[in-house]
């Protein structure tokens, strides 16, 4: 993806001491960064606030991260916003989140137009409340022709449900005679996932210190580099994002082999 160097310089203008244009290699940027945004509830609790305030504060971090990803020329940014297991939260919190997703998307659509960002959803969004689904559909339609970064929002997403769905779709193709079982390979499966057509994440960031995958992109993260920070999602900013990318650039990715970069 194209990087606008002037805008990138401005982006670094108020960088803290440990961050500079020199310590991030622009020619070795990850193509796809994925984030498990965690810690909104604990951020709110630490301030004596309702959990919903943590989610609202998390929207600002997300906006900053999307803008930073565009500036840095990423091809894909994906984020885990709501899992198939998150329906177990209180009805109040679920309703609040669904409303927040819809209102945020309406509010941020101009940002997607301004930066030529294409929106995608990972997960079964047809099962969402109709108001939320309608806004998501509108976001999809309005950004379908955008050719810049892809922003993929995982909502009502579960990795196991995704793989199960892919198996069903493949079996249907076999039943209908369109696909020979002998021809099924890893690419066949990748293509039937919600992420079909997207590169696998190079870097997975998880905030708030938890060391687990939480049923996220189980297939796609096979060879991704992991970066976990103790920072709660609402406190995560573009400098934390750059620190994660810098850590990624120090890793020696071998994909199971032995060769160096
Ligand atoms: C995890 O924190 C965060 C979520 C389940 C929701 C994430 C949603 C946002 C940041 C709002 C984004 C808005 C859009 C439009 C995508 P948690 O509640 O699990 O925190 P805890 O582990 O501290 O309880």
Account of the 3D structure:
With 261 residues, the chain is an alpha/beta fold. It has a domain of 178 residues: 3-Layer(aba) Sandwich (Undecaprenyl pyrophosphate synthetase). It is 42% helix and 13% strand. Strands 3-4-2-1-5-6 form a 6-stranded parallel β-sheet, with helices on both faces. Helix 2 crosses helix 3, helix 4 runs parallel beside helix 5 and helix 6 packs across helix 7. It starts with a helix and ends in an 11-residue tail after the last helix. Farnesyl diphosphate binds next to helix 2, helix 3, strand 2 and helix 4.
Short structural summary:
By secondary structure, this protein is α/β, with parallel strands linked by helices. It is built from 8 helices and 6 strands, in the order αβααβαβαβααββα. The chain has a domain at 29-158 and 201-248: Decaprenyl diphosphate synthase-like (Undecaprenyl pyrophosphate synthetase), CATH 3.40.1180.
Any key phrases for this structure?
261 residues, Undecaprenyl pyrophosphate synthetase, 6-stranded parallel sheet, 6 strands, 13% strand, binds farnesyl diphosphate
- N-to-C terminal Cα separation, in Å? 21 Å
Tally of strands: 6
Within the CATH hierarchy, at the fold level, what is the topology of the domain at 29-158 and 201-248?
Undecaprenyl pyrophosphate synthetase
Write the CATH homologous superfamily of the domain at 29-158 and 201-248: Decaprenyl diphosphate synthase-like
Q: Note the overall shape.
A: globular
Pick out the low-confidence regions.
Answer: none
Mean pLDDT: 96
Q: What fraction of the residues are assigned to beta strands by DSSP? A: 5-15%
Spatial strand order of the main sheet: 3-4-2-1-5-6
Write out the distinct hetero groups bound to the structure.
farnesyl diphosphate
